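[recover] target loaded
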């Protein structure tokens, strides 16, 4: 019988054990930094934009010269010249003057706004302006994006595509980031064979090795899948010892329940400089999770059942990977949709149930502000990966809830 922790308590113990444990800092090119965790604040080295520019095709003017302009009484301004893209204006604007300007063109000294081309007409050497302009109309001013010395990207945040764009515009070509954690992965079990082999009766191809490697990659780590280890304590112990020389995290898939041949907990408990922190979490799927360390290197024993292993990764391994890269353990926003159950569901209580669902459009409930998205549970045990492959996401039945009725609104987290 496992002595189990709640999901939150298990997460708390894992995160606390990793305080101060960060991967090394490395310098990489900005163009290869997508998804990487910033290790040092990025400060704007220049004003951005470095010059005031137009956001419309039109005429650069002094706003005061256009006050009162209308279709019947236009403001007549002297056309001083034409501003070309990528070049400085041909002089400054004096009272009563205008310059033709393209979108992105540099605002001349003395000018403070742009009148759209549609609201103007060239008459000889003059421009008739039929709409008044307020100061800074249709312009972007110096430093509107970022001012010199302003914080652009704080440390402890992962780089997004828009971040790469703004850094490139500032001429920032390199970034200091936390290196990606190396995750060594083992599959265990006498019945497990590699995917390229033809299974004999009683054998199954390895699912978890490749799935956990993909999740590791998706979570910012570097997967190092080392194949299948038989249900033998000595062999697994030696393999893990060798992995500790190179790994930031070790994952052992299988051998985590309480059967006589499940050896992962014994192996972790006998590793140097550590041992098992806990064994068991009050959740389904994923109850027989093991967590321990060896000389501060985290080691996870995941269930051999694919769905259990993947949920354990999402809830426990991924936060550890984030912490080791200088990120918060849980992202501030997680994609989800609200949907209504299309059937009654029971739950025994005393554990969190993670229910896989597919989403579809149904008829509107008629309730104000309600959408017509429905959640259909996909039933099946933790050994059936089809319950995730066919699904769009999952929702959680809390520990103190014994079920949910049809029509109940649930928050579905998208895979």
């Amino acid at each position: 019988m496992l002595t189990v922790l709640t999901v939150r308590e298990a997460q708390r113990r894992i995160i606390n054990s990793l305080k101060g444990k960060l991967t090394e800092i490395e310098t990489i090119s900005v163009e290869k930094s997508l998804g990487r965790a910033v290790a040092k604040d990025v400060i704007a080295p220049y004003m951005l934009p470095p010059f005031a520019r137009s956001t419309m095709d039109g005429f650069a003017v002094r706003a005061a010269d256009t006050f009162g302009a209308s279709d019947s009484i236009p403001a007549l301004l002297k056309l001083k010249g034409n501003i070309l893209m990528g070049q400085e204006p041909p002089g400054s604007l004096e009272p009563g003057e205008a310059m033709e300007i393209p979108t992105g063109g540099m605002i001349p000294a003395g000018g403070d706004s742009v009148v759209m081309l549609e609201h103007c007409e060239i008459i000889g050497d003059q421009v008739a302006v039929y709409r008044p302009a307020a100061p800074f109309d249709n312009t972007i001013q110096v430093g509107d994006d970022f001012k010199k010395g302003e914080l652009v990207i704080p440390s402890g945040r992962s780089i997004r595509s828009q971040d790469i764009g703004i850094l490139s515009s500032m001429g920032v070509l390199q970034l200091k980031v936390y290196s990606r954690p190396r995750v060594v992965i083992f599959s265990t079990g006498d019945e497990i064979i590699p995917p390229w082999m033809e299974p004999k009766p009683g054998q199954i191809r390895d699912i978890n090795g490749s799935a956990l490697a993909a999740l590791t990659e998706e979570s910012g780590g570097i997967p190092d899948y080392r194949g299948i280890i038989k249900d033998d304590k000595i062999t697994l112990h030696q393999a893990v010892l060798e992995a500790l020389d190179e790994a930031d995290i070790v994952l052992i898939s299988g051998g985590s329940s309480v059967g006589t041949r499940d050896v992962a907990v014994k192996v972790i408990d006998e590793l140097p400089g550590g041992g098992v922190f806990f064994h068991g979490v009050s959740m389904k799927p994923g109850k027989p999770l093991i967590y321990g360390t060896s000389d501060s290197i985290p080691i996870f024993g995941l269930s051999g059942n694919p769905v259990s292993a993947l949920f354990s990764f999402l809830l426990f391994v991924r936060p550890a990977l984030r912490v080791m890269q200088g990120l918060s353990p849980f992202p501030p926003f997680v994609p989800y949709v609200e949907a209504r159950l299309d059937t009654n569901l029971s739950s025994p209580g005393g554990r969190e149930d993670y229910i896989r669902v597919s989403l579809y459009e149904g008829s509107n409930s008629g309730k104000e502000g309600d959408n017509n998205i429905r959640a259909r549970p996909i039933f099946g045990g933790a050994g059936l990966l089809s319950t995730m492959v066919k699904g769009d996401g999952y929702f959680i039945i809390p520990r103190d809830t014994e079920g949910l009725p049809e029509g109940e609104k649930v928050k579905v987290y998208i895979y």
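[recover] notes: The chain has a mean pLDDT of 94.
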